[in-house]
Amino acid sequence: MSPADPLHGLLAACAQRDRDAFSRLYQSTSAKLYGVAVRILRREDWAEEVLQECYVSIWTHAPEYRAALAAPMTWMTSIVRNRCLDWLRRPRPEVADEDGTVVESTESDNPGPLAELERAKDAQALARCLQGLEAKQRQAIALAFYDGLSHSELASHLREPLGTVKTWVRRGLLRLKSCLELQEQA
Amino acid sequence: MNYKNKPELHERLAAEYALGTLRGAARARFKRWMREDGSVARAVAEWESRLAPMASSVATRRPPARLWNEIEARLGPAASSRREFFWKGLGLVAGGAAAAVAVMTVLPLLQRPVAGYVALLSDPRTQKPVLMITARRNDSEMQIRTLDPAIQVADASLELWALPKGGKPRSLGLISDSDRPGFNRAVLRMDAVADRTLSDVPMLAVSLEPRGGSPTGAPTGPVLYSGPCVKDW
Prior knowledge:
The complex is a heterodimer. By secondary structure, chain A is an all-alpha fold. Chain A contains nine helices and no strands. In chain A, helix 7 packs across helix 9 (162-185) and helix 8 (151-158) crosses helix 9. Chain B has two domains: 7-57, no CATH class; 79-232, Immunoglobulin-like (Sandwich), CATH 2.60.40. The longest helix of chain B is centred in the first third of the chain and has 14 residues, at 38-51. The interface between A and B is large, with 67 and 49 residues.
């Protein structure tokens, strides 16, 4: 978030069409963004295709990046997550994963990104606020964020009625917001 | 559905969009609304900032080396003169410094311009006017109206270019992309007021570009519409 974030400078240089800066931006962010995409899509070949689109889009839209609205990594992560969700929605014939690119599904209710979150120094306020949610709310939000599950997928995964799951998500998000606002004031 | 002026719904949809649970038609509708209404876009950006730190704990994974090569290939040559023949065709080839690319933001139409710049872009095949573009002298917003409802591009973007006298085409932004086909009004935000952006621009043109706009900063696709840009005062 801080202006000292080196990604700010790299994005600004990309906006000036600096290809070296773009290469450095790729080197410093692609492993994280690829991790995010593989986690949602669960197939490396899809993640590769989506990430290719995303970096082309990051290059194209770098002049539109506004530091006041979002930190560079937030901006890029949102591009990747949204593109992954669009990808999952696309109707496509299911192709067998003959080349073994399917990644084992990992569930957010097992020790995974959510458990790791407390160690990530940029995310401590968020980790604390997530801890303050009811377990069901936290689990639903984590599955939606990390694994890209929709409301109906959440309902079938958690074996709960759709309305119940929607309520968990909605209340969880509201509590998260007020908790983060309190943390900011403190 | 009319969900404007309902701040609670507005906030809930922004949160669910950022989390990713908003899907299907509701998601598509919300994306259009986000493009039209700056306050909705801001609410989404705030939610994305709240939730994005969750991604910091996702395990990193090194993508295969070929990925970078593929991305680089998509950007085309580093210099920006690819496919200049379209512009030679228009007799508009370039020299001189390219100005910064304008920022595109779609904002609600607030007011109709009075005195300023007017451009009428036609389709050279049919000779029919297709787009009317107006901007007030001291305003940095450009109003775009589609006169031909048939304008639609699938899986591509329409990019608007200023063709300055003796200069390279300058991107003014995207006026449509595959996410909002069939739009009939849009607003582009220029990076300076019209008097600075358009005073040396006798012509505007629209080219067909890959989704997200020209990857090179210069037009790469065919020119679909073009027309004079005149001062109206």
